[in-house]
Specification:
The structure holds 2 protein chains of 2 kinds.
Chain A (H helix, E strand, L loop, with lengths): L6 E12 L2 E13 L15 H8 L7 E6 L2 E5 L4 H11 E4 L11 H10 L5 H14 L15 H13 L5 E4 L8 H5 L1
Parallel strand pairs in A: 5-6
Antiparallel strand pairs in A: 1-2, 1-3, 3-4
Helix pairs in contact in A: 3-4, 3-5
Chain B lengths: L9 H9 L9 H45 L1 H9 L4 H30 L11 H27 L9
Classes of the chains: A alpha+beta, B mainly alpha.
Chain lengths: 186, 163
């Protein structure tokens, strides 16, 4: 295992004000994720898993503490959301319980979109997206719209989209329930 | 109508006639203005007011269309933000959509005018200058509508995908 963590959350705090009460969703959480490491975070409902994911995934800045991606400090209290979006695009792949594909784009266009928003021209973006889909066993479904794909296939397209920018970190919001043994292997 | 001797001084004669009190002196250009421009002025104002109302209605309709199209795609916009799309990428998509609505509407309008105008009781002439003005008005309305859509899209949070 490499000594430098790819994701490092240091003393993350997230408090929410609900009326007169303060909900302490996170209270000084520290987490290190190393390259090649697979980590699962378990806990009862309301224990702050989603909040930790939002902060680690740069969707929200923490109230206090810091988030490092590799050696770079990318998020801390008051961090600008637009700047976090740039880091997210280049460094993090997010996979959700729902595939959240864009319904009027084909599978390959959905994957290519992640590259096109990073200024990759359409043709090479689609070519690379096609390669990713083939690697995930969906080459024959590239030109299909999400509505015509099964739940598992949609989830694999979402995974291809998350991997398109070659992120150093992939964060699934929940275990991909629709993965079959063969697709998990891929 | 009075014709002057070429050697006569028109200004001197005009001032002499004006001294009569019950007569007026009008040049040919002033006669044309009296007969045409002043008569047409009211009509022009009516057409201007009608055009203004049409422009306001067009702005409201196109803006509502773009706004509703943006609202329909809130989830996709949130998704784009979630995967890291920059604000200007999303804004340019909305502007392209507004532009397509504007150009499509303009093209349809011009084509429909060419088909329908021959059946009008009076001859309607649209000059290239009129078309340019109309296109500029459509472009301005589409831009305004696009900005309204962008304003709404910028308020979308990436986290909305997860809810």
């Amino acid at each position: 295992m490499n000594n430098a963590p790819i994701l490092s959350v240091r003393g993350a705090v997230r408090h929410f004000q609900t009326g007169s009460a303060i909900v302490r969703a996170l209270d000084g959480v520290c987490l290190d994720v190393y390259p090649g490491e697979l980590i699962g975070i378990f806990g009862p409902s309301g224990s702050g898993k989603s909040t930790l994911l939002l902060i680690a995934g740069l969707l929200e800045p923490p109230s206090d503490g810091a988030v490092f991606i590799g050696p770079d400090l990318v998020s801390r209290a008051g961090a600008e959301l637009d700047r976090l979006r740039d880091f997210r695009r280049r460094r993090i792949g997010l996979v959700f319980q729902k595939a959240n594909l864009i319904p009027f784009l084909t599978a390959v266009e959905n994957v290519a979109l992640a590259l096109e928003i990073d200024n990759v021209p359409v043709r090479p973006a689609c070519a690379y997206a096609g390669e990713l889909l083939r690697a995930l066993g969906l080459g024959h479904r590239s030109d299909n719209y999400p509505a015509t794909l099964s739940g598992g296939e949609q989830q694999r397209v979402a995974i291809a989209r998350a991997l398109a920018n070659d992120p150093s970190l992939v964060l699934p919001t929940s275990p991909p329930l629709r993965w079959t043994a063969s697709s998990a292997g891929r | 109508m009075a014709s002057l001797d070429p050697a006569a001084d028109p200004a001197r004669i005009a001032s002499a006639v004006l001294l009569w009190g019950d007569a007026n002196v009008l040049s040919q250009a002033e006669q044309q203005a009296l007969l045409l421009d002043k008569r047409l002025w009211k009509l022009r104002i009516q057409i201007l007011a009608f055009t203004g109302v049409l422009l306001v209605v067009m702005t409201i309709v196109v803006s509502l269309i773009i706004y509703m199209m943006t609202i329909e795609k809130i989830h996709q916009i949130a998704m784009l933000k979630l995967i890291g799309a920059r604000s200007w990428v999303i804004a340019s998509m909305i502007i392209q959509e507004a532009g397509a609505v504007g150009v499509g509407g303009f093209g349809f309008g011009v084509a429909a005018a060419h088909l329908v105008f021959p059946y009008f009781p009076r001859r309607v002439v649209i000059t290239p200058g009129d078309l340019t003005m109309l296109f500029l008005a459509v472009a301005a309305v589409s831009t305004f509508a696009g900005l309204l859509g962008i304003f709404r899209a910028m308020k979308v949070r990436a986290q909305e995908v997860l809810s």
